[in-house]
Request: fold
Amino acid sequence: MTNAYLSFNSSPDKLIVNVKGQWVFDEVLALEDATASVLPKAGQSVEFQCAGLEEIDLAGAWVLYDRTEQLSELGVKSEFTCFKAAHFKFLQHIIDAAAIREYKEPDGTPERPKVVRETVEQVGRATASHIEDLGQIARSILDGVRSPSLIMIGETIKQVYFTGVQAIPVVVVITFLIGIVTAHQAAGQLEKFGAMVLVVDLVSISITREMGVLLAAIMVAGRSGSAFAASLGVMKLNEEVDAMRVLGLNPNQMLVIPRILGLVIALPILTIFADIAGIAGGALIAVGSLGISGLQFVERVAFSTDLSDFYVGVSKAPVFALLIAMVGTLRGMQVKFSAEELGLKTTMAVVQSIFMIIVADALFAVLFTRLGI
Amino acid sequence: METIISIKNLVNRFGSQVVHDGLCLDIRRDEILGVVGGSGSGKSVLMRSILGLQKPASGTITVLGQQIEYHQPGPSRCWGVLFQGGALLSGLTVQENVELPIALHSNMPVETRHELASLKLLMTGLSLSVADKYPSELSGGMRKRVSLARALALEPKILFLDEPTAGLDPIAATAFDELITYLHDNLDLTIMMITHDVDSLFGICDRIAVLVDGGVVVGTVDEILESDHPWIKSYFGVPRAQRARHAIGGSRFE
Reply:
């Protein structure tokens, strides 16, 4: 049998193999096949004649080396003639050196834990990590406000700009559109009762009490919660946070508190913008296609919507802001090792802050109903 | 001697700052070329230009007969790069990092791939106990070794090293130098090495390229030492360079 890499000559006492052609990385697959055919043919000993070998690299040498090892395990001696490349010696050296420091597998694999045990462990670990999170938040806030400095004010104003002012356009546009959608949907249903004018009540109450603040908060969670986690995470990875500590600056004071404060200031203001835009959206539909006059609209809003409705909405904003900023900064500060973890923590920051906003909103709804506001 | 990399009239500019101004350099087969230069003299920019990661203002670069275009696939099968920080993919284990180029560029069975990757790890002096660790769990020196193993995964003809011994302690740095020499002696490798480590420069480089005034001064160690360019004089005149020079081969220079 003959192929591009090997050909066989038999002699009475041993198998003679001519090694030829290109023994390189690209050919490894073919080489594996070719050398496999040596195994069944080998008698007592094999002689590899390498005069026809054009090129060999480490991968090619490895294939040949591996086969001779297999042959010697089967008790077949192999020898080489005309073998020029230093690769073999090199391989031998590497493998000898490795054998000295060979890693010993720890004996006895631990027994497979039971499902129950695993679950309990998981619950325990999750609980512990949540308690730890709470502790970290409390610590960073207390640490941050312990001895307030003027630097915080500048940073806070910067954060108000980034998280609040820059978010105005997108928040205004979404709530405006949601105002339009709400008015449209309400009109379809209320028309059946001949109570078209109640569209105004519905839009203004739902926007001021719930939708305005909720939409602004969710938007900010997506925008700024992720930005907090990502920027703090990168700073952690670059050891900037450690550098701050060494310089005597308090990272909680420099990084965490301004972000929290900034957002607590920015979100209520954004909510006001959202309320105005949402009602404007409703007004556009009411006046434009439902035949309610502008004056009627304003009158109806004033009649149906109390100032307390507006306060209910806006009062939730600082709480949502606190949740977003705390989760975002906490997750950012928890980034430790890799870029992968940065992504994971950023995702966690957004998902958890939105989740917490909605849970908090539900609690508020119950609370305000009980209080009768 | 055969030229592996040929750089002709390379010009690199950042705004008004000219880094390379008509730089010409030939890298020969089977040599170890050390690249030195002051901060901002464009050592890394030169390497990035050769690798096609940096768009030069003008000039041509040919590697193994293939002209390099910015962000176009170069002869990636034929070169291996050791980036300064290692640039290991942090989401993959050590073994996966080394296996990745092999998996991308060949269709060999998983087992062979695995063996070859392990071989490369052993070759760079690592023990296989690190194979399942993540890069973040390794020390700086080990990370460099893994990165070197990855650079060698495809049996490259050219190896680029960006400050391979920076950030290593003298023992590890010496060991790394020995490793590079060892690989160079045993494999058919051309090596371009950016370094500030004078021990490496005197110890293992065949030629030295000094980047000065937007151009390059190339020569053997002795030729460079005799240069009367002021920057080169002061670079090799500082005590630590003098000490390294005497320590490495007094007889060679005296």
Q: What stands out?
A: Strands of chain A lie at 6-10, 15-23, 45-56, 77-81. Chain A touches chain B through 29 residues (CB under 8 Å). Residues 188 and 263 of chain A are 38 Å apart (CA to CA).
